[in-house]
Structure formats: structure tokens, C-alpha cells
Amino acid sequence: METVKVGLGFVSSERGRIAALYWEAFGRKLRPGFTNEAIGQAAVKSGLRADRMFVARRGATVLGICGFCDIDAGAVDLTWSSLRQTLSISASLRAGISLIALARVPRAESLVLDGLCVDSAARGLGVGTALLNAATNYALQDGNRSIRLSVIDNNPRARALYERLGFTSVDGGSLGLLSAVYGFASYTTMELEVNK
């Protein structure tokens, strides 16, 4: 059996598969920004940034992804200019306003992760750990002191993985009345020091 290999970036033929994985994992949170699921998936597919995403593969099969943020956008560019490439002005405005609550903010000396997801058939095979190890190596090479991520309250399996790998809670928040809109009530920001 081939081992899982993680690399930075993806080729254009993998874009559809990666968009489907991302939407499967995060579509519930993103859906309020779009008039229907097909439009949301198209916006995600168009906005994927190969330079901001680690991809885990076994052979030619994509098993999981782990995105990260930079100064101008995350792993999926859902900024106004990106949205306007696939959506009308009114649809872009709706998406932009709806997605503000989910925005990740880059931090000095910290690699901020933006979307870790593993195909359901590959869970439990170490894919998430391999992706986080790749992110850790990247963070070290880039001179970062830590890795930060957010995990939502209804994803205890992901939180258990992060804790097992040494992430600790550093912040959090609640969505209050918006929890019904986005499908989760609270989030926890976690951090792993990589450069001690």
C-alpha cells in the first residue's frame, strides 16, 4: 500500500476534488453567503489558492487538505475581487457580508491555518496528522513561532487531534444569535508553539 504524501499546492485537474472536500467540510458555515449550494461550490472552486494549501495524496488520490492564510487571503480567496469573477455584484455583496464573521486574520510570527479537512473514507489513517506536520515544517521554515487554528464546538474529533498534537486553547468566542445561521455556536482558537 502506498504511503500518504503531503505537498504544497495542487494541479488544475485536482481543483474540483479539492473544492468538493472543502465544501463538504465547511459548506454549512459558508452556505449563508450564497443563494444556493451550487453557487457556493463554484465560488469556492474558483477561489482555491494552490499556493496556500497542503494536499495529502495516496498515489494520485487526494485524501485531505490543509489551507493557510497570508496577508491578503486564505486558502480560498473569497474577497470581493475573487467573488466578482464568478458572481454578480449583488451576489458578491451578499457573500462578502455573510462571510465577514468567518474571516481569518493573519498574525505576525504565526501561521494561521484555514481549513483542514480529510475525506471521510480516509479518516483514522493519519492524514490529518500528516497535514499538520507539513504545516509545522512550513511554519518553521518560514520563521514563524506558532501555528494557530480555530475549531468549532461541534467538531470534537478535530479538537482531540489538535490537543493530541500539542495545541492548546488560547482564545475563543460565541456566535450568539448567528449560531443558527452558521451551524455552530462557538469556536476555540488553538495554538501550537513550533519555534521555542
Shape summary:
globular
Percentage of helical residues? 25-40%
Strand order of the largest sheet: 1-2-3-4-5-7-6
Mean pLDDT: 86
Task: Give a description of the structure.
There is one protein chain. This protein is an alpha+beta fold and 196 residues long. It is 36% helix and 26% strand. It contains seven helices and seven strands. It has helices spanning 15-30, 37-47, 80-83, 89-99, 127-141, 156-164, 179-182; strands at 4-8, 53-58, 61-68, 110-118, 146-152, 168-174, 186-193. The protein has a seven-stranded mixed β-sheet with strand order 1-2-3-4-5-7-6, with helices on both faces. Helix 1 packs across helix 2 (37-47). The longest helix has 16 residues, at 15-30. The protein is globular and about 45 Å long. It starts with a strand and ends with a strand. The mean pLDDT is 86.
